[in-house]
Amino acid sequence: MRETTNVLVIGGGPAGSTAASLLAREGFQVTLLERDRFPREHIGESLLPSILTVLDLIGAREKAERHGFVRKYGGYLEWGDDTFEIVFGDPAEFKDGYGFQVIRSEFDHLLLEHAESQGVRVRQGVKATEVVFTDGRPTSVKWVNTRDAEETGEISFDYLIDASGRAGLLATRYLGGRRYNEGFRNVAAYSYWTGTTPPRHGPPGAIQVGSIQDGWIWAIPLHDGTLSVGVVAHKQSFQSRRDQGRTIEELYGDALAESPLISGLLESGTRVRPVQVEQDFSYICEESAGPGYFIAGDAASFLDPLLSTGVHLATFSATLAAAGVSSILRGELREDEVAEYYRGAYQTAYIRFLVLVSSLYLNYRGKKSLFWDAHRMSREEVADGRIIHAFWNVVSGLEDLDDAEGGGSALVVSEMRRLIDVYFAQGSGRDDAWLAGLPEEEQEQVLAEVRPLVAPNEYALSEETALNGFFVRTTPHLALVRVDEPTEAVER
């Protein structure tokens, strides 16, 4: 079977469904291939407030609200000797300032069905097996039915958006793989509980996070009455205890007992699911865009889940990719300049969170220092007394959306490259363990070298100094727009 489409999307998770919905709403012919049949289980249940903007853009806000997901107005962290209460908004206002705590099988299914309702040709149970290239650009994908191996086909397209998740079809098979962060080679063990004690700390619907000796624990309230509880620990520590004969269930129980915050919630509770394990290895694909393709979501990068950034980065990258493809297909921009913008803007968002997670894991110097890290990343001018608001703005994901729509970005390419060289160094010995072992003054010097700078005009902090001269516009139609120039058609 041979088919054609304007845009082929591989993967029906949040990145794929969001990109497909946006492009279909722009009037393009979009086909989406999803290997599984939804609903399917997935971890990553805590969503940042930026999800509201994305749901509004694709026209799915009402559906999500009606579904009854728990509204998340912030988070509560007990980290070492310090506590953090993160507040996104006022529950009395109801309009915005919250994210969701979701059962991912239900949320992802909602997004995929919504994409189909917007005109996307959704094909579930269809696995992309091979990408065919012509003169260096992908031009078609071969597929197979996962239930009937004799049913195969090929789809030709103008553009490919790879949202294939951690499998990462393009990155792992055709583009030379990914760069892994050795310091974040973590393991997550998680399960679900009922009959638990309601959290006493944080705003309504808050995720509870407690640090332990070798990692941290999350507790997420879900709308079906269960509590998702997961332990994140470094792979080496986890494996060492396994080698001593501890079972997965025992390791999970040992970790819970280390955190009074989390164990207190579970005293009257009952675990209702087996403990499951996933490897949360952080990585990034540097060639996230090129001739004829964009890579979005977990296919492009994965970051430790400490700050609940997974769905945010997925939908944010999907929005950037959809805007870029829309402008290319309408003849407004060249694909090379769009690809350059996408790579820079997406990696900026990723690294913004990497700095915060690294601060918590490896260079924790107290609340004020952490808030200052966020302050330096924020375009928002705030007085010293409002440092915490800059921190909230970054960890809510709203800073990235402001950057995209306003033409701003908190890191320039040169600073971004230096940060990658420190945290993803290959063969240099300069990894996270190396950084953690430095004296405090030297650690601060390293972080000072890679911190985002906010003053010079060369940095993309406004429409006048937008990253690579472009920003995302969402009205009257989705587009990538050159700053201070009329939108003129160009040959692709």
Question: Can you give a write-up of this model?
Answer:
The chain has helices spanning 14-25, 50-58, 61-67, 104-117, 169-173, 235-243, 248-258, 260-266, 310-329, 335-362, 367-377, 387-395, 398-406, 413-423, 432-436, 440-450; strands at 2-10, 30-34, 46-47, 70-72, 74-79, 82-87, 99-101, 121-124, 126-134, 137-145, 148-162, 179-194, 207-212, 215-221, 227-234, 270-271, 276-284, 289-290, 293-295, 301-302, 470-473, 479-482. The chain is of the alpha+beta class and 492 residues long. The protein folds into three domains: 2-45 and 103-178 and 286-323, FAD/NAD(P)-binding domain; 180-281, D-Amino Acid Oxidase, Chain A, domain 2, CATH 3.30.9; 351-482, no CATH class. Strands 5, 6, 12, 13, 14, 15, 16, 17 and 20 form a nine-stranded mixed sheet that branches. Strands 1, 2, 8, 9, 10, 11, 18 and 19 form an eight-stranded mixed sheet that branches. Strands 3-7-4 form a three-stranded antiparallel sheet. The longest helix has 28 residues, at 335-362. Residues 378-385, 407-428, 449-462 and 487-492 have low confidence and may be disordered.
